[in-house]
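ingest -> validate -> predict -> emit
validate: passed (alphabet ok, no gaps, 148 aa)
predict: started
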Amino acid sequence: MTDGSVHQERSVTSDGEHQSGVAVTSQTTTDPVSGGQVTNSVTQVWSGRSTDGQLTWLIAGVVIALLAFDFVFHAAGANSVGFAAFVFAVGSFFAAPFAGIFKTSYASPGNLVVWADLLAMVMYACLAAAVVKVLALMSTQRQQRPSV
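emit:
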């Protein structure tokens, strides 16, 4: 087969902070004996978001979800068995730094409103946002550093 034409298209989008896009490369070759044409196409999709930032949000999301379950299970008066026992153990671990700042109140007998869980959710979300921002700044500085 002989070399034919190569065509490349690239589409880039930006949200102001990150760029992502699609690159499509097509190559058409012609068989000199049969005269038939074959087109090979490769599509690449890329995202400008860092995997470190995505991992940070994933971990924060899991922690916040467990704290939300802990809050709801306490408020609903769930028994400490099975999955609820696991959620209570993990939730109390992650809420421990914030325990005692606000009093735990009773919605009704046996139903607790654990304000430390809500405060922990807000604080961990803020911490995750700060970590992602620092990672983005470090990544930007690495990209702008001149090579020697």
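The first helix runs from residue 51 to 76.
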